[in-house]
Structures are given as C-alpha cells and as structure tokens.
Specification:
CATH topology: Rossmann fold
Number of helices: 10
CATH class: Alpha Beta
CATH architecture: 3-Layer(aba) Sandwich
Helix content: 25-40%
Radius of gyration: 18 Å
Order of helices and strands: EEEHEEHEHHHHEHEHEEHH
Bound molecules: adenosine-5'-triphosphate, magnesium ion
Number of domains: 1
Distance between the termini: 25 Å
Oligomer: single chain
CATH superfamily: P-loop containing nucleotide triphosphate hydrolases
Structural class: alpha/beta
Low-confidence stretches: 1-7
Strand order of the largest sheet: 6-7-8-3-9-10
Shape: globular
Length: 258
C-alpha cells in the first residue's frame, strides 16, 4: 500500500473490530484507517457486512438488540465506545445518508432546520443561514429556493436524496456515511450526487457503500473490499482496481462472482 497519505491525516481508526448479531459473526477482525478529506468506498457482495460496518462508525448498531461489538473505533483519536462518549454528539459529528431517500414528511426548510433545532438553535436568521448553506452544499439550492415551504415528499427521488444530504450537512458533521446513496436514482441524479461527493470531500470525510464498481473507481480515493465479514483488501482505489493483491479481490472486481 502506498504510504503517501497513509501515515497522517487519519480521521477514524478501526482496530480489531468484531461484531456479532446474536451468535452470528458479521464482522471479523476489521482493521482500517479512514482518511480525512478523502472518499473511502466499501465494496463487496450482498450480505458481506458493508452496512453493518458503516453503521458501527456512528453507533447506529446500538439501536439493534442482540448486537455485540468488540475492538476499538476512534474519531480523532477518541474512543467512540467510551462510556463518556455522547452518542447524540457522535451522530452529529458522523452523519448518515441512506439508500432510500427518506426526507421527513415536512417542508424542505423544516427538513434541514430539524437537526439544528434539536441541537438548540432557535434564531430564525441563523436557521435561515444554515438552511441556505446546507442546500447550497448539497447542490440543490437553486432547485428549491423558491419553494422552501413545499413538502420535501413532493420532490423527485434525486432531489429528495440531495435534501437528505443537505439535512446531514446542516448539523455540521465531520464525517458523512453514505449507504448506496445512488442505487435508487436515475443516471442524471447519480452523476449529480457523484459530483457533489467530490465537492464534499474538501470539507468532510466521506465513507460510501456502493455496489457499482465504476462508481467506486470514479469517486473514491480508497477502497475496501469485504467478503463474508472479512475485510479482504484495502488500499488506494487505483491500486486496488489495477493491481489487486488478493485473488478474491481480483475475482470480484473482474465480475467473476458477486
Ligand atoms: N439486524 C440484524 N440482525 C441479524 N443479522 C443481521 C442484521 N443486519 C444484518 N444482519 C446480517 O449480517 C450480515 C451482513 O449484513 P449487512 O447488511 O451488513 O450486509 P451488506 O454488505 O450491507 O449487504 P447488502 O449489499 O445486501 O446491503 C448478513 O448476513 C445479514 O443477514
Ligand atoms: Mg447494505
């Protein structure tokens, strides 16, 4: 693995991570450094643990019964499983965008202002500013600026997904987790989200699950290949797709299985 950016600029670090759903082990000894201001793609066949891994990074798995996790995950060196870690604050710092666009059944404005309001911001001018900045950040401002009172549910799927990205930006996260953010979208919306991801990495650290290997190649700096709970290979995207070190990675990226 090329050590150019590897040594420094680690935003999140995962060490010896095991995760069990009841008796079933879904993640096996995962070790991985996630780089700041970079896009990291997680690829692998269905059921290999990509979403499970992603949800571990902001402790969304805490919401599921019967989950047992061992090992360490740090955010800027802080242990996210530490009992002093405020989980609400963690999820503010590590935001998430899901596969199906899931705007709240309320206006565009209220969708974006929701998080900041929960975190105590009441000032109208301040909220207006956050709403505009977040919608601009998600490349949807021009499409909705004249209709901020309109229900977000009346937008197209691609627009809804950008609203969800804006909603994630509104709480000023440091890391953005995206679970197959474009799999429900048409090609034009997909291109918009991919372009947006390029923009986002200037300010944020992005981790994205994708089934689309061309997408991983197009947008990501680093790629991790998962297979039945193991992280088989991790490295710079160009490297991994050009010279995979593991036969299983090679078979997967050349379409021989999965
Ligand atoms: N809440 C849960 N309870 C029990 N088992 C689960 C739960 N969620 C996921 N699993 C199991 O853990 C394994 C990993 O699932 P996960 O959803 O992380 O896979 P994935 O790589 O995201 O797959 P896909 O590409 O289909 O989204 C699977 O075997 C799945 O059945
Ligand atoms: Mg998944």
């Amino acid at each position: 693995m090329d050590n150019k950016h590897m040594a420094d600029e680690v935003k999140m670090s995962v060490k010896n991570l095991d995760l069990y759903y009841g008796q079933k082990q879904a993640l096996k000894n995962i070790n991985m450094d996630i780089h700041r201001n970079a896009i990291t793609a997680l690829i692998g066949p269905s059921g290999c643990g990509k979403s499970t891994f992603l949800k571990t990074l902001n402790r969304m798995n805490d919401l599921i019964d019967n989950v047992r996790i061992t090992g360490q995950v740090t955010l800027d060196g802080e242990d996210i499983f530490d009992r002093n870690m405020d989980v609400t604050m963690l999820r503010k710092r590590v935001g998430m965008v899901f596969q199906q666009p899931n705007p709240f059944p309320m206006s565009v404005y209220d969708n974006i202002a929701y998080g900041p309001r929960v975190h105590g911001i009441k000032n109208k001018a301040k909220l207006d500013e956050i709403v505009e900045e977040s919608l601009r950040g998600a490349a949807i401002w021009d499409e909705v600026k004249d209709n901020l009172k309109k229900s977000a549910l009346r937008l197209s799927g691609g627009q809804q997904q950008r609203i969800c990205i804006a909603r994630a930006l509104a709480t000023k996260p440091e890391v953005i987790l995206m679970d197959e953010p474009t799999s429900a979208l048409d090609p034009i919306s997909t291109t918009k989200i991919e372009d947006l991801m390029e923009e986002l990495k200037r300010q944020y650290t992005v981790v994205v699950v994708t089934h689309n290997m061309q997408q991983a190649v197009r947008v990501s700096d680093y790629t991790a290949f998962f297979l039945v709970g193991d992280m088989v290979e991790y490295g710079e995207t160009k490297e991994l797709f050009t010279y995979p070190k593991d036969k299983r990675t090679e078979d997967y990226i050349t379409g021989r299985f999965g």
